[in-house]
Design a protein that fits this description.
- The protein is α+β, with helices and mostly antiparallel strands.
- The protein contains 16 helices and 22 strands.
- The strands form 5 sheets. It has an 8-stranded mixed β-sheet, covered by helices on one side. It has a 6-stranded mixed β-sheet with strand order 15-19-14-18-16-17.
- Helix 1 crosses helix 10 and helix 9 packs antiparallel against helix 11.
- The two termini are about 40 Å apart.
- About 50% of the residues are buried.
- The N terminus is likely disordered.
Length: about 525
Amino acid sequence: MKKHVVFISLFLVLIMMATMLGGCGGSSKKPDAGAKSAATAKNPPKIAEPTKTVDPKANLNADITIVQQLDMVSFDPIATSDLSNRYIITNIYSYLFAQDRYLNSTPELAKSYKRLNDSTWQFEIHKGVKTHDGKELTADDVVYSLQRTQKGTAIGALFKPVDKISKVDDYTIQITTFGPYPALPTALTHVSCGIVPKHYLEKAEASKDWSNPIGTGRYKFKSRIIGDSVVMERFDGYFNKDDKALNKSLTFKIIPEGSGRTIAVETKKADLNVVFDTVDYDRVVGNANLQLWQHPSQLVWHLGYDNTNPNFKNKLVRQAINFAVDRKALMEVGHNGHGTVVFNNATFAPTCLGAVNNPGNKYSYDPEKAKALMKQAGVSGFDTEIIVFRDEAERMAVLVQSYLKVIGINATVKRIENAVFAQTIQAHKAPMFITSWGCYWDPDMFLARRFTKAGIGGVNRVWYQNPELDVMIDKARTISFDDKPRAEVYGQIQNFLAEEAPEADLYVNNMYALANKDLKGVEINVEMPHNYYKLHY
């Protein structure tokens, strides 16, 4: 860990930016800054659509290098749901269901499935699936792996509705739930549901050594240099010959600095940058040798605070923080205005089922209202820390620091490594923090994980719990298999959480990927570029 010094010059620049932007009302909608630049760009961004056909003359044996900002954490699927980890290990492990670009489920290992009644599902897996060390995958492997997932904390509340996971025969498993659970197939796409062969899983659990992972995915693990790179090679034994890898190997290179990742693609040291820093936007759209790809996002940037911390137990203080921060200015600093501001407190992107952008039109940028709430709370001020682990968050934290000072909160900004972020949260050493959350279209995939006891030890980073909310979440899950009545309950939940203010959601950034202009098969979902197996020349 290391505490970064905040340079006075940067601080003044950001304060000036806040002053210029602060006159705009927080509830108004700002045009996408990227759209304005693209209108006159020589090479404007393209929408990344799923790959449908491949040129017969395409080179399917290229070695593809991908640059990302953060290193992975572990090859153990239940260790973390961090995006930088997920989009590496999902190349090695197969899943009953993979994700489409909207994070909905699409069958992978599941050859077929059916719901026998409101609480019983059966899944048939493909026969002849080979592991990377040449063994056949059966229902025993799937059951053992998913039972371990069920006991873990990474998936948390997603498996709370699940009663039993059992074997029917060598290629069929059955999952029973405590009641209706419409989102079960989508839950099975979670990173922690990666199917790890039983023989390897038992060995890895006993030795606590995951350094040479074995799966059934499109790629076999080759090597890893911690903090630098991960290399994997195409697995020619992948069971679905009609959807095999379109390249020979993937190398994931870690470059923390944003412009460094841009330069890597510019100089052809990398083929694809999956965490594009919009600081370089105008530069790359003017470069005919590059192509910037884009896709709508469901990645919600938020300011969190530990609700068990004495300074944040009072909901009036939490509400005051929501009024104190200028979300538009934060979006300018974090992503150069490329996104959509949200005034939510439930990590809802505008595209989620039942989403309300500003429940009850409660919040706006209003420092005077924030001061009044602090006075009403009887809190004159306090000292705290804002924890961050990436560049965008650090830039925003410096600006948040200035907003909080206006209402008497003196915050220092502390940057730590991504690998220890979860432990820092669990040790209650992150009184405040800024990070992002990739939400699903179905709120059942994240609400309980983010704001109930079932998410403690997982991704309930704000430590919020409330029995009233638990009842509403259960109601939304079980009321119907139809979306309309569920959406109505989710609207009620958002109004409830707007009053409780367990966190301050800020904005949803546009999703970009930067590539060599000749690279084919670039795909982006609502939280990150994905399906790297389709990349080819």
